[in-house]
Design brief:
α3 packs parallel to α6, α4 packs across α19 and α6 crosses α7. The strands form two sheets. Strands 3-2-1-4-5-6-7 form a seven-stranded parallel sheet, sandwiched between helices. A seven-stranded parallel sheet has the order 10-11-9-8-12-13-14. It has 19 helices and 14 strands.
Length: 409
């Protein structure tokens, strides 16, 4: 099994190198790891009190950020090393000021793992949500470094719980404690002999609450609604946009709309605005007066979506017709009803919101039309659904404190 694992790492690295010839993200993955151990050695030389946080990508980083920042406040004598597997995390957060060092994680070979652990000599390690790298975890286990994983969810179909999963179960022995999101994860871990597990919840709730508290005031949107309900569509993909714009063009309901697509390249934005038949403006090109008069505001930049939700009454979260829905919690935190497409089943919070009436899902555009109409006509329904969303986020906060209360040096 170890031989198979090593071969899989070797061939993955080989494939990424080949893909780097024509894929920009793969090229970043390769170039970012060039002489990486040498760069790490030069950066951390002389440091003795390092703590290591590892994140797969940007989403996991945002999930772990409350713990990173709370740890930094509580343990000021320690410096933090943050690593990323994916370029989408590293390239965006390589200058993050909340930690002391940010690196790509070298590929998980035995040699790389031994050298990386030797160089940073971590006093404590945190893995965010998942990423179970055998050689890194094996080295940490051998050196008896306190190692934690948080905001994780285990599922019965994972390799750890299969008859042939002995190697992967061995990986789990490296963890000092598991901080999981649900009771099922506790039962699964206990079923294979792990008692060192706590139900801490999901640190994303702490993060979205923090984001909401720090949300920007956008003066150009203060009068956008003009006493009309605002529907905000966030992180949308083409199928989401097709369904939403079809409704916009056909309805006589006096909504105002904000569309913030997941991809904001010029060609995509042009495709969106070309399909809209009602008066629209683009966020970065419009004056406040133009925004006030428009029916539809198309956001053509990044970094403002979490602040936009404060101006909404109803939210639509994109991705439900692709690989999976995007962040529902940022909208729920503001007390907005949430709507999304059918691919939500991997997201616990989405299922929870559906269960309490804070969210609704749909498959056909006709069903979406009915949802939009219902939220427009029934103010009590809108308020009840929105209150359920907000109360859910409030109830689920606190994972960060639970984690920091248990970890020990």
């Amino acid at each position: 099994m170890i031989l198979f694992y090593n071969l899989s790492i070797f061939f993955y690295s080989l494939l990424v190198r080949f893909a780097s010839l024509f894929n920009p993200k793969a090229k970043q993955w390769v170039q970012g790891r060039k002489d990486i151990l040498k760069k790490i050695a030069e950066a951390v030389e002389g440091e003795t009190n390092l703590v290591w946080f590892h994140s797969a990508s940007l989403g996991e980083f945002e999930q772990g950020r409350p713990v990173i920042e709370a740890f930094k406040v509580k343990y000021r004598d320690y410096k933090i090393v943050l690593t990323f597997f994916s370029p989408s995390g590293y390239e965006i957060r390589k200058n993050y000021e909340g930690v002391d060092y940010v690196f790509y994680l070298p590929a998980d070979t035995k040699r790389n793992a031994k050298e990386f652990i030797r160089l940073i000599d971590p006093k404590m390690v945190f893995f965010i949500k998942y990423e179970f790298w055998y050689h890194y975890l094996n080295q940490l286990r051998k050196k008896e470094v306190p190692t934690y994983i948080f905001s994780t969810i285990f599922r019965p179909n994972q390799m750890f719980f299969k008859p042939w999963g002995a190697l992967y179960r061995r990986i789990l022995n490296a963890f000092t404690h598991f901080f999981v999101q649900n009771e099922e994860s506790i039962e699964l871990l206990k079923g294979i002999g792990f008692e060192n597990v706590s139900l801490a919840g999901d640190t994303r709730f702490d993060r979205v609450y923090s984001i909401a508290k720090q949300a920007k005031i956008l003066p150009q949107l203060e009068d956008f609604a003009q006493n009309r309900p605002v529907m905000i569509a966030g992180s949308t993909w083409p199928k989401d946009e097709e369904n939403i714009i079809k409704y916009i063009n056909a309805t006589d309901k006096d909504y105002k709309y904000i569309i913030a697509a997941h991809e904001v390249d010029e060609s995509h934005i042009k495709n969106i605005v070309s399909a809209i038949e009602k008066p629209y403006v683009r966020f970065t090109f419009a004056t406040k007066a133009e925004i006030d008069k428009a029916e539809v505001l198309v956001v053509d930049c990044i970094g403002v979506l979490s602040s936009l939700y404060r101006y909404g009454d109803i939210s639509y979260i994109g991705g439900g017709f692709g690989r999976g829905i995007h962040n529902t919690l940022e909208a729920a935190c503001y007390g907005l009803p949430v709507i999304f497409g059918p691919n939500y089943h991997k997201f616990k919070e989405a299922k929870d919101l559906l269960g309490i009436g804070g969210a609704h899902t749909y498959e056909k555009s006709e069903d979406l039309n009915k949802l939009f109409d219902s939220y427009h006509e029934d103010l009590d329904l809108r308020k009840k659904s929105g209150d359920s969303s907000k109360n859910y986020v409030d109830k689920m906060r606190g994972a960060t404190d639970k984690i920091l209360d248990i970890i020990k040096f």
